[in-house]
Amino acid sequence: DLIWRFRFSLVDDKRALSKFLLSVDWRQANEVIQASELLNQWRKRAPIDITDSLKLLSGSSGFRRTVVRDYAVETLEQCTDQALSMFLLQLVMAIKYEVFEEEEDDEDDEDDGEEDAEGEGEAVEVPKVQVGALGRFLIKRAMTSTALANYLFWYLIVECEDPTYGIYYKAVFEALKAEMAKTPLEGREKGSSVTSDRGSALGAPGGHPPDSRRSSDGSGTMLGLFQEQCQFFMGIMEEQIRARDSKGKKAQKESALKKNLSKYTNVSGRVGLLPVPLCPEVEVLGVKADGCFMFRSALYPAVVTFKKQPDETILREEVQRRKAEMTRRTSLNNKKISKLLGEEKDVDGHQMGSRSGRESRKSRHIKGLADEVKHLPPTNTSTIASRALNEEYSVIFKSGDDLRQDQLIIVMIRLFDSLLKAEGLDLCLTPYSILATSPTTGLVEFVKGSMPISAVLAKYGNIQDFFASTNQAEDIPTVRETYIRSCAGYCVMTYLLGIGDRHLDNIMMLPGGRFFHIDFGFIFGRDPKPMPPAFRLTQSMVDGFGGEEGFRKFKRLCGQVYNLLRRSAGLVINLLHLSKEGSVPDLSYHPTLTANEVIEKVEEKFRLDLNDEQAEAFFSGLIGECVGALAPRVLEVFHQIAVARR
């Protein structure tokens, strides 16, 4: 009542808009009229930002009105493709709020509801259901970006199976397919984003290379591409299920899988290349059946290796970087490098001239760039050479598991990573890709070369010796710096997200120092073990920092990361509110808390009552508690005994 009484004094404060909308009695026609007029004043005098627009798309009763949601969607128009990709999963979850509200409003007067729906003008009609403003916006943006279209396509496929809201998602999916069918692949990508910004770890749109090579005859459509993609990758999923259910032990199952995957050696000639569903900037030519294997577990997930089209943009950047380094060395009279430069030109010219006429001009160009990279010496500062030259990409195909919870956590980690990079802080994270393809199947990026910390300690004794055994001596300081940064990042992020069931088998290491977490079966404070620490940090991990100075740097980084992420607490909380009906077990179906109570617990972890100095001291205290915690050490022993018995 107080907010409503002073409503005319609030229109210059964007922070007051959401509170005002919650104070409106939407059953009173005169209040609805005033609210609409005041909303227009807010739009002009104190426009909201992206964080506030996400809040207005949530399921709160005061926000589930067409005039409110239209304003929120209008604000989202400002988003770049890269920013939109960070929120796309949650925005798809928010679709249920707009269409369900229309049905609720119309159930008392069916005829009036039909008139209102027709008055929408732009709405795409499907029997009994119309696509609202948010759905139309997402479809429109997807038509300008293959990567956004990819994620929207798969997110909708999963949501179509929702027993409550599936009818609404099917309407949006049909509208998406209708637009895709009208969108030709050839020439479509001019000036639009297709691949991800490699400067962030979002794994979603941001680059601008052309995409015309997918349709050799120019008649292909975006719908045709994604139908081919779905058929190809879900066909492989069926082969994994068939091999899993076949008789015999692991070796027999793997043999059956490899035999059945031989028919997937090459993708359809109509498209030539297919984007990988969980990482669409990676395009594959087919399966390398001999490189596939299965994990020994009840569900026998399969690792399938694909032949990959090298990334043209990365190759070009690497060639330029290496040529610049070669020029520098040549200027110092390095005759050996000069000789290599001459050989590189001859090799490139010979290979480019001997290409088969069946290969496309683009493929020959990319192969030529790859040859250049191979024959130019790497630079000391090059960080992308391995990715540029990597012609394989491996994916774990899982059936029998719901990956939507893991998918949400990876999306949040990527968001955190992007926020920190925007502040100039790169923590060397490894937010590998996860995509649920149904409520019981999904794809996970396979991170080659990674080892659980338990295996590192068993084989090398300690993390320092692991680094020494897998790296050149001159690289150790850089490797240790990478380790400290990534460890700090994941400690803060797993604390904020309440990641539980942490043991040394689901915390991973890479030889280059990258440290990361996998398996997010317990989140938002849930843990199967008693007395869990705030986050997992053992003495063996601390020893890897290389001494007291490394440990001090780790603690400083943790405080810096914690304070930077606290500034975005509102964004995180708003995204979780959009996710609370997204069939995420530990959020949507928590055994003891409502979804709102779970989100409140997450908000408490940001300690918004503290200033930066106090918050840094608070997190430093958590570090001390975690390193010295006895219960996790005892439970780790029992865990390793249980693993050994299995």
From TrEMBL:
Residues 372-631 form the PI3K/PI4K catalytic domain. Residues 102-125, 185-220, 343-364 are annotated as: Disordered. It is an enzyme of class 2 (transferase). Residues 102-123 have a biased composition (Acidic residues). GO terms for cellular component: endosome; peroxisome; phagophore assembly site; phosphatidylinositol 3-kinase complex, class III, type I; phosphatidylinositol 3-kinase complex, class III, type II. One of its GO terms (biological process) is phosphatidylinositol-mediated signaling. Its EC number is 2.7.1.137. One of its GO terms (molecular function) is ATP binding. CDD domains: PI3Kc_III. It comes from the Eukaryota. Keywords: ATP-binding, Kinase, Nucleotide-binding, Transferase. Residues 1-179 form the PIK helical domain. PANTHER family: PHOSPHATIDYLINOSITOL 3-KINASE CATALYTIC SUBUNIT TYPE 3, PHOSPHATIDYLINOSITOL KINASE. This is phosphatidylinositol 3-kinase. It comes from Triparma retinervis.
